[in-house]
Design a protein that fits this description.
By secondary structure, the protein is an alpha/beta fold. The protein has two domains: about 1-185 and about 375-390, Glycogen Phosphorylase B (Rossmann fold); about 195-375, Rossmann fold, CATH 3.40.50. It is about 45% helix and about 15% strand. β5, α3 and β6 form a beta-alpha-beta unit. α7 packs across α10.
Length: about 400
Amino acid sequence: MNILQIIPSIALIYGGPSQMVRGLSAALAAQGHDVTILTTNSNGDRGQAPLDVPLDRPLEQDGYQIRHYPCAPFRRYKYSAPLIQWLKANAHHYDIAHIHALFSPLSSMAARTCRNAGLPYILRPLGTLDPADLKKKALAKKLYAALLEAPNIGGAAALHFTSAKEQQTAQRFGHSPKDFVLPIGVTLPELQDPDLPEQLRREYNLPPGRPLLLFLSRIAPKKGFDLLLPALEQLRAEGLDFHLILAGGNPQDPAYEQGIYDQIDRSSLKAQVTRTGFVGGDRKRALLALADLFILPSYYENFGIAAAEALAAGLPVVMSNGVDIHKDVTATESGWIHDCTIESLVEQLRQALKNPAERAIRGENARRCAADRYGWEAIAQQLQTYYQQIISAPA
């Protein structure tokens, strides 16, 4: 099959949902398919320089191609008129398109272009069809949906959800397209520099002998900081020893990010928190190797790729039951699950911090859980079956 993967950006700064397209494309290519990622050179929303990549020509990588296009004329919204022009001219060369993200001008126009060209397409909403998410800028999204996303959903060959919860809660705007649930795969490459974990320990002046808690995700309201910070303050008051590594940022809402930093600086936790900002690549892998526990107290995650990567690294997790993969963690005893309350988070963190031997056992369980449930090869095999069913379906 000739397959298009279309996404506004695959820059590291946009986190897991963007990065998974690379792993998916490599896994599909390994099964003999021709895969092209169609994307822009966007690299953040704070005035960062765009990705230093060749434009409007294929870049070979891991058996597939990436075609980058400049963000023009609306760089902030990751829209690229040249990309849409290329898609109009070349859609007929492909068998199917898999479009990642809704309520994004690029994805919306790509879906409309595929529909006009008669190219079947799948939409992966990335949680944007959740009613809670739709309440944000509700009027603007209602108009946007009426003009673009409702017709795109109605014309889609299928919707791809990464969890059953996302599938159940998704708003479809009066349409009933086929849908399927397929989780995101994770791949953690080996550390290129095996000495990097200890180098980072020195660079960040991380204290020896203390359990290291790692938060590695976007710093945003839904991530549960109003649970995490009070819970850690209470545990500190109880005399429990720990150190939090806060690795992340928020290019879309820098004011919220700074507010969290200010709150920490005013609290009793100031000396027990290290802020690294956004990390990726080998440095991310090194932090996962350094940490003793991974924390994700989110109110809602339609998958939780950062937590899945932690599991793949053999790191036990403390996560909320709002993260959809919490059932996998419970079934495999790969961590501790809490309700979305301060009291519940305190209790689960207390158990994890007081039991280093249990952390080690659950870390080994975590590694097996990720390999069995989030391996890219198995996911790609399932996905190609969906692709073939769509392509062979009568028009």
